[in-house]
Amino acid sequence: MPAIDDHDHDYRSDAAGEVRVPAADGLPGLADFDAFLRVSADLTGFDETELRGTGMAHEHHRTLLAHHVRDEHALLHLWYVGAWPDEPPSSPRAHDRGLMWRTFHGAAPGSTAPGHGSWARAPHDGGDR
Fold it and tell me: Buried b vs exposed e over 104-123: b needs ≥16 C-beta within 10 Å?
């Protein structure tokens, strides 16, 4: 597997060219919160400030450290959905703050109030504004 040297990370590409985040033992920096944010930003496409802005960065870091498998798909799932694959959300707010909602400028159903007076305006049909 060829290594990709980027910002002192030791990513590995598999035969299909997908980048694999090595185990924490192979990348001691994953235990470091700032390194975790850099890796997360590289994988998610959101910058470190946006990831911190979710309010979930420290919680997601703790979740990652609690798992022995370090897989970029699991880490992406954690950031976008708010849960480690095949587990419930790490907290009641984790799902609501998942990156999947930010990708289309939406909000999780029932997570935010529509706003005062929203009932007085016709719903937006998704067309031109």
Answer: eeeeeeeeeeeeeeeeeeee
The rounded distance, in Å, linking the Cα atoms of 2 and 102 is 33
Calculate what percentage of the chain has a pLDDT beyond 90.
Answer: 40
**How many residues in total does the chain contain?**
129
What is the amino acid identity at position 83? A
Q: How many Å is the maximal CA-CA distance in the chain?
A: 59
Buried b / exposed e over 32-66, threshold 16 CB at 10 Å, is eeebbbbbbbbbbebeeeebeebebbebbbebbee
Give 83's contacts (C-beta < 8 A, 6+ positions apart): 77, 89, 90, 94, 95
Six token digits for residue 76: 């992406």
Q: Is the per-residue pLDDT at 125 higher than 60?
A: yes
Rounded Cα distance between 98 and 85, Å, is 13
Read off the pLDDT band of 24 (50, 70, 90).
very low
Domain residue ranges of the chain, discontinuous segments joined by +: 28-110
Summarize the confidence of residues 55-80 as an average pLDDT.
Answer: 90
